Predict the structure.
Amino acid sequence: MTQISSPPKSLSVDKVDTSYLQTLIGYNSRRAALAVISVFMERMAAFGLRPVDFSVMSVITHNPGVTSRQLCSSLNILPPNLVGLIQSLEAQGLLERQAHPHDGRAVGLHPTSKGVTLMKQAEATASELEMEVGSKLTPTQVQTLVHLLQKIYL
Amino acid sequence: MTQISSPPKSLSVDKVDTSYLQTLIGYNSRRAALAVISVFMERMAAFGLRPVDFSVMSVITHNPGVTSRQLCSSLNILPPNLVGLIQSLEAQGLLERQAHPHDGRAVGLHPTSKGVTLMKQAEATASELEMEVGSKLTPTQVQTLVHLLQKIYL
DNA sequence: TATTGTTATACTCTATAACTATA
DNA sequence: TATAGTTATAGAGTATAACAATA
């Protein structure tokens, strides 16, 4: 370990100033995402779902027959990282893989009735959390926030 | 591998609908953060800084004498994960560790002149990027977005 | 030749337990 | 007893290269 120089040539910091970082959209959106998602994780643990599991199952439920490649594109997941995830959800009986109607390479992903039931509850829970988070804001502000965020990444 | 059932009982999906996920603040803020930060990473690579290095050096530069513990609290980093980071920045000659004026356990972190110079350029680059990202929004919208995000996580 | 799904693997990030030196 | 800094390590997340089957 490097030796600490001495004597001290400055005073201590009482309150840390992060005002510069707080001007950055990337910093603020990351901090907000982490704050919301940490609570989201706690709630979804009751369903055995991580955030990425929730996203994948949500897209499959709303888009029966969607392919792995389409999931990767829409959720920004790399194909190799989706494989184990799909296998796990299939093993849990939440989705089924079916032959794609007109592409022998692809596989259509379909929610099972168990998956549909679970996601109905999970999405209801997510929407509840959304209202809690949104309670820090007015309904209009929530709408504005979502709209502005989408202008950034879409 | 599980056998794929047949025959297919559904059509293929042409356009993936992610409208439900897009109602969630957590989902949108995460996607926005990833989009902005990926560009941020490219720009900061020129300075040899990852996002977390930038954040740490920025706080140290604006708060000379700040302790590791204070850094951890303000940036939501776990102490064990900060150790190697600080050592690396010190090895690069960007910061110095000095005895804390009135706490023998703590160490004050100070930017070197090299660190100050680097951060001046890095923050200028970050602010340039901020304007580019912000060009998708009006200046008022950027201000609104930042304000709303802070209401979520602060 | 290009694309889908897959395997193997490496790398980074994040988290937990436990230790020391000092308050 | 509590806190700052540290060590070791485990786990999760993310990334690239390469392959077989199909378009």
Remarks:
- The first strand of chain B starts at residue 95 and ends at 99.
